[in-house]
Each structure stands twice: as structure tokens, then as C-alpha cells.
């Protein structure tokens, strides 16, 4: 006999998928129509005022704005005036950059990740990979614009920027380098949390201006610097901690090995590496986000995600000791050390 509660759970699960897509579409359209920036400037507006300022000519604009209220992106008061909700104030507000998630949202729901249903299907039915994102030096300079990409990565790495500074071991170290550290999302938070630490963001030149502006805006010029570095051509700086966030998953395994060997060579004795990206569970069954990241990496290039066991094995094989997974609620990183005796 069918259990009613199970049917309800299954129906709810399917509905939550459909609602997620509706919310994503609604939010993308509201962003394109500038709804949040208009409300940032004007605080509270009626439906007609908001519609006029956003170019909404639709015959019942309040339906659109009320959907945004129901999705918790807007609030509406007793006088039917609309304002930003708490969620929008926090993560859709460019003035609150530390928590700003708009480029991340646009990137993950409308630009990357299989580039829409038609292209997704086409890629699965062919032997090609997404032609704009072939491996090679042009990958990170041409597609997408580097400033948009680094702002999108800022949102992707927000949990890393909260969790990594909280690692116990920073008290034992003085220097770090964030290889491919984008505009410095994680590096900035490490330096803010630990006044004795000096850091370097090592990146391609396309990110330099954005990164230096961000460091300056955070008043960290004296302890955090940008260094132009191409990890295919150059060695890494000699530091206590090397960070690789969403780096190894972009490339074939041979490149990951090359990067880890360079890291082993550059690291000070007893130093540590931190590797974070979307690790798969060992069974490859239970982590939807990581499974989609793995598929995305395969469709868009020749990269891959790793299971937790695979990343620990890879790090260990390349000369590091005491490899372990740091597990902080929804954020995971692989950590390992270069021991005196290695
Ligand atoms: C997926 S992003 C990760 C950014 C950041 N680590 C994070 O987790 O948010 C990969 C970064 O690697 C950088 N990158 C790509 N190829 C590189 C190379 N050959 N040398 C140095 N950095 C590179 C890109 O510019 C990009 O910012």
C-alpha cells in the first residue's frame, strides 16, 4: 500500500524544484529591470512609482512586485509601499560588497552551468566541449569578462572566506599565498582576522586592477599584495600556507599534479596547503551541487571535481602529510602539511 506521507514528500520535492526555477527566473528578470537598485535609491515606492522607474508597462505591475514579496526579495507595508527585504538588503546590495551575491547568482543561473537547456542538450549529444571555454590561456582572459567573473567568484567563495580564517593553525604561521585567488575574497578575510599574517594574491594580469582596488578599499595594502603569476610558467612564492580555491577542478589531472608539486617545492617546512572546491561524497550519490559542478566542469572543459578520498589521495601522492578534510557545516576544504621529515 502506498504511504500518503511519502507521496506528499515526493510531490513537495518536485514542486520545490519547479519553484526554485520560477524564483530564479523572477529574480533574474527583476535584476535586469533594476528593481533592487531603484528601491535602494528610493527606499519605499508604490507599485505605480516602482513600475514607472523600472520601465514596467504591464497592465498589473503589482502582480510582479507581489511575486517578489512572496519570494522574500521585497517587503510591502500596510500602505502598499514596496521596499527591499532583509535578504535583498544583505545580498543584493552592491554597497554591502562583503555579502554581495548578484554576479554569483547571474553567473550560476543564467550564464554558466550548461548555458541553458538547448545548449546543455546539444553538448550532451555531441563530442565537443563548450567552444568558448576550451582549455588554454584565453580561457580566463576572454570568457567571461574578468571583472564579472571575479565578482561571481566572490559569491562562490563567500563560505570559504568565512571558514578558512577560522582555522586554528593561523597562529602558527606568518605568510600565505592564494594561487588563482581572484580579487582576494578569501585573502582579505584572512588578513582581517589575523593581524600578524601577510598575504599575496597570485593571479593573471587580467585580475590585477580589480584585486588591488579591493585590497586598497579594505585598508590592507600593508599586509596584502597582488603578484602577477601564471602557474603554468612560474614558481610559487615561498610561504607558510598555499591556498588553491576552485583551481584544480579546471584542469586535467596532470595539471593538478604539476600544481601540487610546485606547491610542495615552494612551501616552507611544516607549512600547509588548503584546497577547496566542490568535493563529491565518496559514493558519488549524495551531493547534488558537487555532482552538477562535476558535470559542468566536464562539459565546459577538461576539468573534474574530486571525491573527498580522491583529493586526499592526490595530495598525499604529491608529497604532503596528514591530509584531512576540514568540514565546517556547508563548507569543506582539504588540508595537508609539508613535514620536516618528508
Ligand atoms: C575558478 S576561479 C577561482 C578563484 C578563487 N580562488 C576562488 O575560489 O574564489 C580560478 C582563478 O584562477 C585564475 N587562473 C587561471 N589560470 C591561471 C594561471 N595560469 N595562473 C594563475 N591563475 C590562474 C583565474 O584568473 C581565476 O581567478
UniProtKB/TrEMBL annotation:
A Pfam family reported for this protein in Swiss-Prot or TrEMBL: Dimerisation
A GO BP annotation: methylation
Domain O-methyltransferase C-terminal residues, every copy: 146-321
Coiled coil ranges: none
Domain annotation O-methyltransferase dimerisation: ranges: 19-92
Domain of life: Eukaryota
UniProt protein name: Methyltransferase
Catalytic site positions: 249 (proton acceptor)
Key words, A-Z: Methyltransferase, S-adenosyl-L-methionine, Transferase
InterPro entries, A to Z: COMT-like, COMT_C, COMT_dimerisation, SAM-dependent_MTases_sf, WH-like_DNA-bd_sf, WH_DNA-bd_sf
Keyword Cell membrane found: no
GO molecular function, one term: O-methyltransferase activity
Family matches, as SUPFAM superfamilies: S-adenosyl-L-methionine-dependent methyltransferases (SSF53335), Winged helix' DNA-binding domain (SSF46785)
Amino acid at each position: 500500500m502506498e504511504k500518503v506521507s511519502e507521496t506528499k514528500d515526493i510531490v513537495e520535492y518536485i514542486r520545490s524544484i519547479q519553484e526554485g526555477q520560477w524564483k530564479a527566473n523572477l529574480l533574474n528578470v527583476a535584476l535586469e529591470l533594476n528593481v533592487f537598485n531603484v528601491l535602494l535609491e528610493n527606499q519605499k515606492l508604490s507599485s505605480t512609482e516602482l513600475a514607472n522607474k523600472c520601465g514596467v508597462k504591464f497592465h498589473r505591475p503589482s502582480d510582479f512586485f507581489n511575486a517578489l514579496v512572496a519570494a522574500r526579495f521585497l517587503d510591502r507595508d500596510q500602505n502598499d509601499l514596496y521596499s527591499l527585504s532583509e535578504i535583498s538588503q544583505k545580498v543584493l546590495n552592491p554597497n554591502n560588497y562583503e555579502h554581495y551575491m548578484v554576479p554569483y547568482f547571474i553567473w550560476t543561473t543564467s550564464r554558466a552551468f550548461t548555458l541553458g537547456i538547448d545548449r546543455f542538450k546539444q553538448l550532451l549529444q555531441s563530442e565537443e566541449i563548450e567552444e568558448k571555454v576550451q582549455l588554454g590561456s584565453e580561457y580566463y582572459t576572454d570568457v567571461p569578462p574578468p571583472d564579472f567573473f571575479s565578482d561571481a567568484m566572490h559569491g562562490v567563495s563567500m563560505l570559504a572566506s568565512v571558514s578558512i580564517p577560522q582555522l586554528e593553525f593561523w597562529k602558527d604561521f606568518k605568510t600565505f599565498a592564494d594561487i588563482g585567488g581572484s580579487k582576494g575574497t578569501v585573502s582579505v578575510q584572512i588578513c582581517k582576522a589575523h593581524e600578524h599574517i601577510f598575504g599575496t594574491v597570485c593571479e593573471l594580469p587580467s585580475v590585477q586592477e580589480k584585486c588591488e582596488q579591493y585590497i586598497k578599499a579594505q585598508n590592507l595594502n600593508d599586509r596584502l599584495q597582488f603578484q602577477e603569476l601564471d602557474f603554468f610558467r612560474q614558481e610559487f612564492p615561498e610561504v607558510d600556507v598555499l591556498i588553491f580555491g576552485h583551481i584544480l577542478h579546471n584542469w586535467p589531472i596532470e595539471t593538478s599534479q604539476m600544481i601540487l608539486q610546485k606547491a610542495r617545492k615552494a612551501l616552507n617546512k611544516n607549512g600547509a596547503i588548503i584546497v577547496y572546491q566542490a568535493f563529491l561524497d565518496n559514493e558519488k550519490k549524495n551531493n547534488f551541487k558537487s555532482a552538477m559542478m562535476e558535470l559542468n566542469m566536464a562539459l565546459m572543459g577538461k576539468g573534474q571535481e574530486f571525491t573527498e578520498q580522491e583529493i586526499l589521495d592526490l595530495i598525499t601522492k604529491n608529497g604532503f602529510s596528514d591530509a584531512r578534510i576540514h568540514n565546517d557545516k556547508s563548507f569543506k576544504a582539504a588540508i595537508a602539511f609539508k613535514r620536516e621529515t618528508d
